[in-house]
Amino acid sequence: MANKRQSHNPTKKEKREIAREKARILREQEEKRKKRNKWLMILGGVVACALIVFAVMQILGDDEDPATNFDGEVRSAQLANVTDDFGIDIDATGAAGTPVADAGMLSVYSDYTCSGCIHLESAYADTYRQLISSGQMALRIYPVATLNNQISDQMTAAMFYVATYSPDQALAFNEALFDKTNEVVLQGGNAPTETEIAEIAVSVGVAEDVVADLPASIVSDEWKQVAKDATEAFRDKGHGATPTLEVNGEVEESWLETGDVGGVLNAAIEAGAPAN
Fold first, then answer.
1. Residue 78 sits in which domain range?
2. Which residues contact 218 (CB under 8 A, 6 or more apart)?
3. Is the pLDDT at 46 greater than 60, yes or no?
4. What is the DSSP string of 29-61?
5. Do 35 and 162 fall into the same domain?
6. Of residues 67 and 178, more confidently modeled
7. What is the pLDDT of residues 92-106, one digit of tens each?
8. CB 51, CB 193: distance < 8 Å
9. Within 10 A of 192 (CB to CB), how many other CB atoms are there?
C-alpha cells in the first residue's frame, strides 16, 4: 500500500514568522518609496529654483550700462502728446495726442511686464482699435513701471519717447511692446535689449532718425526719470496695482470680481464724453 504524502500546515510560530517577513518587506519597500519621492521633490525644487532664477535674470537683464553700444544721441525728455498726469490720448487713427471727440473715455494703466496687463491687452487690443476708429469710445493709455525691472523701465520710457517723437505710431508701438512681453513673460523668451526695443519701433513704422536715438535715450537718466515720474503719478492717485481701468476718470473695479471687461467698455461707450 503506497504512502500518501500529506500537506504541511504551518504552525502558529511559522505563521508569525511569515507575517513578520512580509511586514519587513513592505516596510523596506515603503522606505525606498519615501526616499525616492524625497529625492524627486528635492530635484524638482532645484529645477524649479533654477528656472525661477533664469526667469528673473531674463526679466532684470544686464546691469551694465548699454548706452555705449550705440551711436545715437539722447533726445530731450520734454514730453509732447502726453497729458499732465502722464496719459497718452489715442485718436481714431491710433496716433497720440488727441482723444476721440464726443466719446466716453476708457483709461488703461498698465505695466508691460504685468501678466494681467498682458492678458488684458491680448484679449482687447483689437476691440480698443475698433471702438476708437468708429468713434464710439476714447482711449487713454498710462504706461507705468510698477514692477521694478529693466524691461518695464525701458519700455515705459520708450512708449513716452515714441508718443513724443513719432506720435502717429503710438498705438501700434504700444501693441507691439505687449506682443514682445507676451513672448518674454508668459512664454519664457529672452529679455529684449535696447536695440531690440528699437527694432520693435522700426517694425511699426517709426522713422529711422527717431529710432536711431531711441536706445541711448531710454537708458539715460532723463528718460528713466520720466518712467519714475509716471509711476509716482499713478501711485499718487491711490492706485495700487495694474491693470487699473477708469471710465471718464473714475476707477471701474466691477470687472475684478466678474471678469467682465466688456461691461467696462460698454460703460465707457454709454457714459459719453466727460464733462469739462
1. 67-271
2. 154, 157, 158, 161, 194, 197, 224
3. no
4. HHHHHHHHHHHHHHHHHHHHHHHHHHHHHHHH-
5. no
6. 178
7. 999 999 999 999 999
8. no
9. 23
Confidence of residue 136 (pLDDT cuts 50, 70, 90): very high
The confidence band for 11, taking pLDDT boundaries of 50, 70 and 90, is confident
Q: Could you tell me the CATH number of the domain that includes residue 180?
A: 3.40.30.10
Q: Are residues 79 and 117 in the same domain?
A: yes
Listed in order, strand segments (DSSP E) in 70-154 are 88-90, 104-110, 137-143
Residues 74 and 54 in one domain: no
The C-alpha angle 234, 235, 237, rounded to 5 degrees, equals 75
Three cell numbers written together for 151? 524691461
| Residue 87 and residue 39 share a domain | no
76 and 56 in one domain?
no
Is 4 within the bounds of a domain?
Answer: no
Rounded Cα–Cα distance for residues 225 and 251 (Å)? 26
- Say whether both 131 and 26 belong to one domain: no
Distances (CA, A) of 166 to 160, 161, 179, 209: 10, 8, 19, 10
Confidence at residue 28, expressed as pLDDT on a 0 to 100 scale: 58
Read off the DSSP letter of residue 82. -
